[in-house]
Design brief:
The complex is a heterodimer of chains A (521) and B (134).
Chain A (H helix, E strand, L loop, with lengths): L3 E4 L4 H4 L3 H14 L4 E4 L13 E5 L2 E5 L7 H6 L11 E3 L5 H4 L17 H6 L4 H7 L3 H11 L11 H10 L6 E6 L8 H8 L1 H15 L3 E6 L4 H16 L15 E6 L9 H8 L23 E5 H13 L1 H5 L2 E2 L2 E2 L1 E8 L5 E6 L4 H8 L9 E6 L6 E3 L9 H6 L8 E6 L4 H15 L5 H19 L2 H21 L3 H5 L1 H10 L15
Chain B lengths: L1 H10 L6 H9 L3 H10 L11 E6 L2 H19 L12 E6 L11 E3 L2 E3 L4 H15 L1
Parallel strand pairs in B: 1-2
Antiparallel strand pairs in B: 1-3, 3-4
Helix pairs in contact in B: 2-3
The chains are: A alpha/beta (521), B alpha+beta (134).
The complex binds flavin mononucleotide, iron/sulfur cluster and FE2/S2 (inorganic) cluster.
Flavin mononucleotide (FMN) binds next to strand 9 and helix 20 of chain A.
Chain lengths: 521, 134
């Protein structure tokens, strides 16, 4: 009898919903029934409301079932799910689920599909073709391919990746570094984690291409300590790649060396800022550095260093494989390519949605997300993490595009969208933004360190103030935000005013203010 | 950092007494090492309880009922955030995003990440942690 393959995610989101118990239950039950099956621990497809979602390989393709609890396993076997049998949890072929079918998955093409720790699987699905091509190219050619693609940094700042690489390539030095920013501190985001757990080899391949492009021989992945599963998967993937000659002294017969080490952070949001991260990698307090010099010229241990986000680097192999022109065929304006969007908060169908940039918030929140999970009216969305703006329902037609959102006082950030229903108190959210800044400030500059603590007090005063005194508190808060925006060294202090002022502008009633209280100047 | 990480992972905290020892090994002053320890949230200055509850208090979890859950958790354990029970059985900590926002509200209890946590589920987990101990 042929062995049937069943896929059960090892993604930590799926594990947090009991995927491990499902896998154990299936093994035990299969043993008892003397069934011959192979369990593959894949990544998550990113349809989290259906997790744990398991899939079985049938001659007609894969069939998904979910959300599966350990108690469902025996019943599923009774229903002959190993041959795609009918059951109330049967979802059909995963690719036909509208949430997946409507996506444009490039960076996430393999996540949830393959065994993350199988080189064979990875190669069978297009893995290492980008690197193979890069090995045959001159460093300048690799860099120009990336410039052509228009890929911008997905960590938050949106700086063109190719330009950064070019700077490091042109910097003369014996030693250069590639640093992967896997700190993923933004609340509402988890795409880095999904890549590292679901397709870690693509990240290693992207870093290796970066190394060939700029002439680096050492790479570091700075991983947040909240991700123990990602650490395990990455470490195993690095060992696999080394054994197969994709990392080491002679990368793919190129004669060039490249090694990657993982370094685990210690719980500090500011260490996601690239220069604070470099300090931390050097073993110090994560204090933000003055720029210039740019890390691309003088970064880790003073050497030229490319710092890129996980998603940025994981997108590089696709670009090298299919060409910069192919990639820039997606997107709008100066926001090219696809963006892995993370939908979370009070939403019916939370998950990972990779779409060409320019998709509107409304499509994401309603067509994909299905509206609020509570069934109550949607009141606000926060886009781009804790430093991103809050937008009201009336602004949901905004496209996800760097320039459009910036013009509306917001940002794309790392692509996280958090949905709130009408029970949200926006004054409380504004206060929280200041509180978070106070908690995570590295302390280097006064507007951020002192300003955020003052900001909490001023918001408290504003909420408590009687009508006659409100305007004074608003003026005070406005001044404080202006000072933070203008006088902060990095974006923590510089952008914390975004969630605060957007809450005031769009939801003044939550502060007990009239609609006109926060006039644009 | 790497050494501190090992100490923290092995002991669950970084004892004051470890600072001069580490300072000697890495050839830095005690003040410098202490500065690093105090900068990062992960490095605990005091030993934690036997079961550490780390509840996410960031935006996605707030939006999905995290605030009510936080009240419940504090009542159930009789702790505020940052405190340890007198008998040393539980420590309650606030964290800001566990990267499990699509399964909000999220928490780490002991070593296990839990998604879509409800007050009932929380009580079950805590009760079974208490049972194991007896
Ligand atoms: C306070 C703060 C936190 C940040 N956190 C992260 C993070 O968690 N992950 C990340 O990739 N970039 C983060 N960034 C952005 C980095 O500074 C940097 O722009 C990025 O790593 C560059 O890579 P990219 O060009 O590929 O995006 C943060 C920036 C600031 C100011
Ligand atoms: S803005 Fe805040 S976090 Fe950034 S450098 Fe200044 S004090 Fe540090
Ligand atoms: S906001 Fe709670 S896990 Fe991300």
């Amino acid at each position: 009898m042929n062995s049937t393959t069943v896929f059960i995610p090892r993604d930590s989101g799926a594990l947090s919903l009991g995927a491990e118990r499902v896998a154990v239950a299936l093994m035990v039950e299969a043993n008892r029934r003397r069934l011959d099956l192979t369990i593959v621990r894949n990544g998550s497809r990113g349809l989290y409301w259906l997790e744990p979602m398991i899939e079985v390989a049938t001659p007609q393709g894969r069939i998904a079932y979910g959300p599966v609890a350990a108690e469902d396993v025996a019943l599923l076997l009774d229903a002959d799910f190993l041959h795609g049998g009918d059951h109330r949890l049967r979802l059909g072929p995963p690719e036909d689920i509208p949430y997946l079918r409507k996506q444009e998955r490039l960076t996430f093409a393999r996540v949830g599909v393959i065994d993350p720790l199988s080189l064979e699987d990875y190669r069978a699905h297009g893995g290492y073709q980008g690197l193979t091509r890069a090995v045959s190219m001159k460093p300048e050619e690799i860099v120009e391919e990336l410039v052509l693609s228009g890929l911008r940094g997905r960590g938050g700042a949106g700086f063109p990746a190719g330009i950064k690489w070019r700077t490091t390539l042109q910097a003369a030095s014996e030693q250069k570094y590639i640093v992967c920013n896997a700190d993923e501190g933004d609340s509402g985001t988890f795409s880095d984690r999904m890549i590292m757990e679901g397709d870690p080899l693509v990240l290693l391949e992207g870093m290796t291409i970066a190394a060939l492009a700029v002439g680096a021989t050492r790479g570091f992945i700075y991983l947040r300590s909240e991700y123990p599963h990602a650490l395990r998967t990455l470490s195993e993937a690095i060992a696999l790649a080394e054994r197969a000659g994709y990392l080491g002294n002679d990368v793919c017969g190129s004669g060039k060396a490249f090694r990657i080490d993982v370094r685990v952070g210690a719980g500090a949001y500011i260490c996601g800022e690239e220069t604070a991260m470099l300090e931390s990698l050097e073993g110090k307090r994560g204090m933000v550095r003055f720029k210039p010099p740019l890390p691309a010229i003088a970064g880790l241990f003073g050497r030229p260093t490319v710092v890129n986000n996980v998603i940025t680097l994981a997108t590089v192999p696709t670009i090298l494989e299919r060409g910069g022109n192919f990639y820039k065929g997606y997107g709008m304006g100066r926001s090219l390519g696809t963006l892995p969007i993370q939908l979370a908060g009070n939403v019916k169908r939370p998950g990972l949605i990779e779409k060409a940039m320019g998709v509107t918030l409304r499509e994401l929140v309603y067509d994909f997300g299905g509206g609020t999970a509570s069934g109550r009216p949607l009141r606000a969305v926060q886009v781009g993490g804790p430093l991103g703006a809050y937008f009201p329902e009336s602004m949901l037609d905004l496209p996800l595009d760097y320039e459009t959102l910036a013009a509306k006082g917001g940002l794309v950030g790392h692509g996280g969208i958090v949905v709130f229903d009408d029970t949200v108190d926006m004054a409380r959210q504004a206060r929280y933004a200041m509180e978070f800044c106070a908690l995570e400030s590295c302390g280097k500059c006064t507007p951020c360190r002192i300003g955020s603590t003052r900001g909490v007090e001023v918001i408290d005063r504003l909420i408590a103030a009687r009508d006659g005194e409100k305007q004074r508190a608003v003026a005070l808060l406005r001044d404080l935000c202006d000072t933070m925006t203008a006088g902060s060294l990095c974006a923590l202090g510089g952008l914390t005013p975004l969630p605060v002022t957007s809450a005031l502008r769009h939801f003044p009633e939550d502060f007990g203010l009239p609609a006109t209280a926060w006039q644009e100047r | 950092m790497v050494i501190l990480r090992r100490v923290q992972d092995a002991l669950g905290w970084v004892p004051r007494g470890a600072v001069p020892v580490i300072a000697d090994i890495v050839n830095l002053s005690r003040a410098e090492v202490h500065g690093v320890v105090s900068f990062y949230h992960d490095f605990r200055p005091e030993p934690p309880g036997r079961t550490v509850v780390r509840l996410c208090r960031a935006e996605s979890c707030q939006a999905a009922g995290g605030e009510a859950l936080a009240d419940h958790v504090q009542n159930r354990l009789g702790l505020k955030f940052g405190q340890t029970t007198r008998d040393g059985s539980f420590t309650l900590e606030a964290v800001y995003c566990l990267g499990n926002c699509a399964c909000s509200p999220a928490a780490v209890i002991g070593d296990e990440l839990i998604g879509r946590l409800t007050p009932d589920r929380f009580d079950q987990i805590i009760a079974s942690a208490e049972r194991v101990r007896r």
